[in-house]
């Protein structure tokens, strides 16, 4: 008996179950609780309504993460760097490098490089500090 392929709804739920906890934790770290919840809800509404198209993307997780971080940055009126986001996910939210790679649609080596960049001492343009 040949297995039937999963329906779009099942795939959407799988994506939701895999990504939602980390997406909400990220939003809650950057926004007030109500805004964080609203932002995540709106993101998953967007994903669900565009699921078939999103699945044609090279990396659906990267697309969703870009939309998520853009919406959170807009609501927070501040756009953190990818290195800052990676440090938040790893150091504050305690996500592993592999988990960060999964939810952001990024290669683990890039996650490691972003973490290293976030931990480098920042130097001022004058050379002081």
Explain briefly what this protein structure is.
The chain is mainly alpha-helical. The protein has helices spanning 8-30, 33-49, 51-54, 60-76, 82-92, 97-104, 108-119.
Give a verbal description of the structure.
The structure is a single chain. With 129 residues, the protein is mostly helical. Helices cover 71% and strands 0% of the residues. The chain is built from seven helices and no strands. It has helices spanning 8-30, 33-49, 51-54, 60-76, 82-92, 97-104, 108-119. Helix 1 (8-30) runs antiparallel to helix 2 (33-49) and helix 5 crosses helix 7. The chain starts with 7 loop residues before the first helix and ends in a 10-residue tail after the last helix. 18% of the residues are buried.
Task: List the keywords.
mainly alpha; 129 residues
Strand tally is 0
N→C terminal distance: 67 Å
User: Ranges with pLDDT <50 over ≥5 residues?
Assistant: none
Write down the Rg: 17 Å
In one word, what is the shape? globular
Overall average residue pLDDT: 90
Tally the helices: what do you get?
A: 7
Q: Determine the structural class based on helices, strands and strand pairing.
A: mainly alpha
Proportion of beta-strand residues: under 5%
Share of helical residues: over 70%
């Amino acid at each position: 008996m040949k297995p039937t392929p999963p329906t779009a709804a099942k795939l959407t739920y799988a994506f939701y179950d895999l990504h939602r906890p980390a997406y909400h934790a990220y939003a809650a770290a950057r926004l007030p609780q109500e805004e964080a919840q609203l932002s995540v809800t709106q993101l998953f509404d967007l994903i669900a309504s565009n699921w078939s198209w999103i699945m044609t993307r090279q990396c659906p997780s990267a697309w969703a993460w870009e939309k998520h971080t853009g919406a959170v940055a807009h609501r927070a009126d501040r756009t953190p760097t990818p290195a800052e986001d990676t440090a938040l996910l790893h150091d504050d939210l305690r996500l592993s490098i592999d988990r960060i790679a999964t939810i952001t649609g990024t290669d683990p080596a890039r996650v490691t490089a972003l973490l290293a960049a976030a931990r480098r001492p920042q130097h001022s343009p004058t050379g002081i500090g």
